[in-house]
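Reopening closed ticket. The problem is back. First fold of the pair:
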Amino acid sequence: MIKVMFAGGKTGGHIFPAIAMALEFRKRYSQGKLVFVGTKGGMEERIVPHYGFRLSLIQTKGLSRRSYISNLLLPFHLFKGFYQAQKILNREKPSLVVGTGGYVSFPAVMLACLKNIPTMIQEQNSYPGISTRILARFVDKVCLSHSGSLRYLPSGRKFSLIGNPIRENLIRKEKSAALAEFGLVADKKTIFVFGGSQGSHVLNQTFLHCLDRLKPDWQILWQTGERDFQEIARKVKEKKITATVHPFIQDMGSAYAASDLVISRAGALTLAEITACGKPSILIPFPFATADHQRHNAEALERKGAARMILEKNLTAERLADEIESLLSDETRLKQMAERSGKMGKPQAASMLVDEMEKLLRSGNRNIGHQFVEGTRQEA
């Protein structure tokens, strides 16, 4: 029996790629076992069980870019994380460990390398995180989403450029059913607003102040994040425009299907989903992302004519409302942006990543060959 362990978490950007790979792997190998390692307090505590996967938690912390004092305790947190990850690995005995980023992935993947268990990393961003930059020297395979990542990683032949995996159900939704799911109507253009899995206070407040400038024949689907939900939901009720507000949307496939225009941050996974669904967008990169990678992500879409970018330092309610007006009032331009967005999408990334996982499981260099039985694969 093969067992794959996914290690990563804290934010949706690290969790959902693992979920996408796990769902694809489960589709091929219904008898395989899939387990997750996350961190206490991360979004994985809610998301992973929702998809029917078992989750084990470790308590560790990563390097802080804001507090030097908290970094003094980093060795203690790392030791604790390694100790707990060791217990999980001994108990689960995985055939393969896949890291998807975040500090929670580091202890599990590094220990797997030391235990001679096959390992793989899936890196979402153009600028790899600290965990990826260290682990890349030890793991068997590193799967990248951006060719620019190579400049930050040690040279070698273990890299594959594949893209970010998305869940298959994101791009198989009917618009009419999706609109009905959110209580929206078919004769209005729909603006989908969200600031990533945890929300963006800046984006929420700016969009709130531009609501009065929007046309009444448009409607809003809005994921605010938990922190701003109560305030936004209360204030939206005072507005004349049709809007439905949620702290978190689990069914993102329906959200994208319902939308005519997406307004969001520019995280790697978000853009992978937007392009796979072929949606035009207005992107506001998070200015404090490592190496300003969100700006680089957004610029790539803007250069291709798939999106419009507004830097946060230039973001005002007036500017945002003008951009929305410009796009939603020009059907031809909106359609062209959607087509260009779709051409940039990589909907097969999850399948290609599972192909790489299969290669590691088949490897004759490890003592796991007998666990990988060809007959267990489910043909579509």
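Second fold of the pair, where the issue appears:
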Amino acid sequence: MVAYIGVIHKERRSDYGVSFPDFPGCITAGSTIEEAMDMAREALALHIEGLQEDGEPIPEPSTLAQVKKFVAYKNGVAVVVDAPIKSKMVRVNIILDENLLHRIDAKTNNRSAFLAEAAREHLHH
């Protein structure tokens, strides 16, 4: 997963707005900060998914120092938002103990998804 900087803005009598310097036009809002953050994660994911479907490049995340230079974001609060960027699937050939393979097959009908999820969980810790 990649993290991007979002900027929260709040004007008097308005919701908390969130925009992304790396994705012009990707803007959302929420009535609370928590709701704004939830909306920001969803908006960013959908924006990136759209870029990927259109074959457009996904920009590298800007640093906080870079974002702070933009006058438009001067009065905002920077937050980090994780973005689930899908990469190309690659076929691999692995060797497993036969008994382990039978146990995997007893739990799932999709070995690849099962092993990928197990690997993500193991790498997360």
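Update: turned out to be a display glitch only; the data is intact. The CA atoms of residues 47 and 116 lie 24 Å apart. The longest strand covers residues 2-10. Please close again.
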